[in-house]
Amino acid sequence: MLGGAVAADAQEPHVRILDAAESFALAEAKQGLPRAKLHISASPLDARLALPACTQGLNAFKPSGGRVIGNAVIGVRCAGPHPWTLYVPVQVSARLAVVVAVRPLVRGTQLMASELALADRDLSNLAYGYLTGKTQAVGQVLTRDVMAGQVVLPAMLSPPILVRRGQMVTVMSGGSGIEVTTEGVALASGSRGQAIKVRNSHSQRIIEGVVSGPGKVTVGG
């Protein structure tokens, strides 16, 4: 609603609308990112905007599918005798310590703690995720090259291959407290927890098991 249809003394002050939007955005961001450093800034409203004063109190809300950080939109609603709803653009800046590479690293590197550090980054630039602890990346293998200072994204990591196709492996099976160990040939590569097929070297029978360690496959319980 634009124009002077509402008397000046009966208008809702813009500052109250902006405060409602910013307070709501801050609460939402804190809930989702409790450890982040947050800065909230609502865009100024059109000076010509004249809305009836809200005697019932303003109610802010997040539109369906709305963002929490970056360029967000917060709805502000009045449910009084003269109801209205306004959508306020809000810039939500959130900074958090995330995992970055200390030096350039090449694809295929199995990460060590000494190659990683934590550094403050703007989360609005990290739409594809991030890691908040070095232990989340240590031992994982890079799937692409990484520059010094670059954020290590979850999509850049894969678990290390512990068994490779054609490798001789130890096959462990057990039940009723008895463990039986034999040898076999892996018919596929796999990381910890992956199911692969193995050809028993003695019986030539193909069995399926789960990779449980370097060169080890466990069958059954």
Automatic annotation (TrEMBL):
Coiled-coil stretches noted in the UniProt entry, renumbered to this chain: none
Subcellular location: Periplasm
Family according to the record: Belongs to the FlgA family.
Protein name: Flagella basal body P-ring formation protein FlgA
Domain SAF as annotated: residue spans: 96-158
First-listed, main subcellular location of the protein, grouped into a coarse class: periplasm
Species of provenance: Acidihalobacter yilgarnensis
Pfam families to which the protein is assigned, alphabetical: ChapFlgA, ChapFlgA_N
Superkingdom of the source species: Bacteria
UniProt keywords, alphabetically: Bacterial flagellum biogenesis, Cell projection, Cilium, Flagellum, Periplasm, Signal
GO CC annotation: periplasmic space
Function in brief: Involved in the assembly process of the P-ring formation. It may associate with FlgF on the rod constituting a structure essential for the P-ring assembly or may act as a modulator protein for the P-ring assembly.
A GO biological process held by the record: bacterial-type flagellum assembly
